[in-house]
Every structure is written in structure tokens, then in C-alpha cells.
Amino acid sequence: MKKEIINNQALYQHMLFFDPLNKRAVFNRSNEDADIAERIYYVDEKPGVRILENGDVEFNYYAPGAKSVKVKGIGGSMPQEYDMEPVGDGYWQVVAKDIAPGFHYHIYIVDGVQTTNQLAPYGYGCFYVINFFEKPDEDSDFFLLHDVPHGDIRMELYKSSVTGRIKAAWVYTPPGYDQNVDKRYPVLYIQHGVGENETGWIWHGKLNYIADNLLAEGKMEEMIIVMNSGYAFVPGEKYMFFPGEFDSELVNDCIPFIDSKYRTLADREHRAVAGLSLGSAQAYYSGITHMEDTFSAIGIFSGGVRPVGMFDSYDLSWAFEDPEKFNRLIKVFFVSAGEQEMMYESNKEFLQRMKEEKGINSVFYSRPGYHEWDVWRYSAREFLQLLFK
After folding, report:
1. I need a labelling partner for 144 at 20 to 30 A (CA). Which of 27, 34, 96, 349 fits?
2. What is the pTM of this model?
3. For 220-244, how does the pLDDT look when each residue is reduced to its tens digit (9 = 90+)?
4. How many Cα atoms within 13 Å fall on the side-chain side of residue 335?
5. Segments of 232-347 assigned E as strands
């Protein structure tokens, strides 16, 4: 495996460390007469997860006094559990030879207790703070950190009229946004999945690097990208799979806020909505419901594309009864899935049938993979290149 890939900073940065140093300070007070450099200094720290040049994955955990340490994947492309062995100085280690390339949430079990690894990257997923790592493949270059012009990531706060709470949205502005003061930009609103939040598309999805690299290659239009928390639970209502009134929050609160603060092209033709998993259902619902006044493109990553939502959470059948209107209003109807996902075959067949029977235009994209971030990164790369042409 290429060193420039496995050593790229994008693979190891996370919400607590942009550039993990893997260093530990040593305070040696045994000899007060020694030179300061001998009493206070740094030593190399074992990284929690390291990808070796042959593709194996080395895990390290610091647990002096532990009797048992295990590391375990969370299904998908890492369903295995590995026993770690003590290697001295309180460290435990195992080298796994059978982990597939891709993004992997994983957990550690120390003496029977589930915990996290302070030496490994941290993120938010599965409703918890959780460790993750990336085993890249030779085609992973598109989401890595390269020496190209970089856009900015800004955290904005706006009030939700649904919950009464202040919400955070992370906003990507393309390189040159602050310099090109007379230019206005189209906007993509993109959502996370169940158990994740607005931070996911940055720390896990590397969406800012995907956009930076595509722009540097001239493969996408300059745009603003807005990442929201999709939870808008209404107080007093039962918490269902479809979390509250996010559509109302997005359309009535977030979009007007973004349009008031950023130099947007504030019309339907220059606004798109997308998401992964749960976020794809939100994007599907909002995109179709507001296709006449708010959105002209929809991206559904690893979600159901049938008009009736899970648990009858919505029914969009009406939108497909007028194919000419649908095709005129929705410039890009993009659907993707990993080839090992349960919706892969049904989505492909449904879109093909809608094309043959009704003439509904769509783009279907797939690649080998599970319900995991590597599939969604590839999906985002493809979708971004189709927008606002």
C-alpha cells in the first residue's frame, strides 16, 4: 500500500485532534540536578490504530493491570473480534490481517467492560462517542488531504421554531469565498444518518476535502454546503424513527438563516438537498415536498427510494403521477447504495421500472460496500459533480 496514502493526515484527524502527534510527555524528577532536557521530554506514543504497508491493521491499547483486552468491529466490513496480547509497559496489541478496506467504527472490551481507546481517533456515531479508523484502498485519494486550495468550515447557530432550541449548522464555503465578494453561490443541504449528527460529514465523511479536491480538478461547481443536525423532536410527542419536524426546521429556519448571512443564489434552481440513511429519507421527503419552491436536486445515499416511507412516515406517490412535471422540476434525482446493502437490488429495480413505465429520470450509483461511510463518500463525490450544471 502506498505510503503517501496510509500516512495521509486525513485518515487520523478527528474532532479532538487535527494532527495527532502520537507523543507523550515524560516528567522525570528522580534527578533534580540533571539537565532540563533529561527531566522533561517527549517519547513516541503507540498509535491506537496503524495501517501497515502490507494492508494489515495494528491495534494498540494502554491498559496496565488488565487481564483481557479485545477489539471488535461493528458489523458491515468488520464483523470480527480480536484478542489483544500484552506487549510490555502496559500496552496490548494485535495485528489483524483480514479487515476489508473502508471506514470502521470499532469498540474495545477490557476485562469484560466496553470502553474506548484514548490512543485512537474519536468520533460520534451509533449514538455514542466511539473510535473509528480508516483502512484506505488504492482508490481512496479523492477524500484525502492534498496541497490544493481549501475551503472554510464555519459553525453557525440559528434558532429552531420547532423545538425552541438553538441549533448548530456546519457550513462549507469554497476557496476564495471571502475574496470574491461579488459572487453568489448555490447551496447543498446535506444530512447525516441515525445515531450521528452534523459533525459526521466533516470528521467521518471528509466532505470538505472531497469538495476541495473536485474543485481543484475542475469537476464540480463552486457551492456552499450546509450540514445540519437532523433531530427536531417535538416536545410531548412520541419519538418515532422519523425524528420530529426537521423538514419545517430546515425550510422555515435554517434556509432563511443561511440566505440572510451568506451570499447565496436564493432560489429553487440553485438549491439541492441530500443525505445518507435516515438523512436520505429526510432529503427525499423535503426535496419532493418542496420541489416547486425550494429544491431542484435530491441525493438519496443508502436509503429507500419507494414513495412510501418506513413505518408509513410519508407518502410521496403523488409526485410521480406527473412524470413531465417531475423531470422538469427535479434536475438531478440521484440514488446510491452499497452492493452489500439490503436496498441495493430493490432501489435499482424500482428506478428502472419508473424509467420504463413513467419516464422518470434518475441516476443510480453503486459500488461494493456496506452501510458505511466509504460508500457515502463515493456517493457524495458522484453527486457533487452533477449539481448546478
Report:
1. 96
2. 0.93
3. 999 999 999 999 987 777 766 778 8
4. 22
5. 271-276, 297-301, 332-338
